[in-house]
Fold:
Amino acid sequence: MQTETRVGFGYDVHRFGPNTYEQGLVRLCGVDIPFDQALTGHSDADVGMHALCDAIYGALADGDIGAHFPPSDPQWKGAESHVFLRHAAGLIAKAGGRLVNCDVTLVCEQPKISPHRPAMRAALADILGVAVSRVAVKATTSEGLGFTGRQEGIAAHAVVSVEVPRSDDAAQAAAVDALMAGGLLE
Ligand SMILES: [Zn+2]
Structure:
């Protein structure tokens, strides 16, 4: 069976403020970190996990987290984000694929991420069903600039690589045929 490697990117932001989930902590990449502010959101506001979900959905070209779990749907109010990430990982499995690696970057001045990195990698790897060596969590500040620099919220970026069975050779051949028929290719 021929496989192909696909790449997906995800981005998410949550602002600091009241949260129906829990005060006095922020949940980042599955780890609860004591902090004097909470992140607002319909779910547990795990911005890192949301970015990672969107990266997986992007790699599979299968919508985004808002399409799969609409914020307007009350059943996701206060939801724990591992539900979303398990769903995304399940779509990889359903496609007969596997996650090659993922790389999450959290952007914030506070809280400090590095002491929690090992726990975050372990939590994500457990949910995704992959080895910890396939999961990277990084952090950076924005040097006091912008909304993250003003500590108004936390942003997260994520990239994933997914290996899936190659299935659309016929579609690609048809596209080339169409271009040749149109005189755009010789
Ligand atoms: Zn989010």
Notes: The mean pLDDT is 93. The beta strands are 3-15, 25-28, 31-34, 98-107, 135-140, 153-165. The longest helix spans residues 47-59.
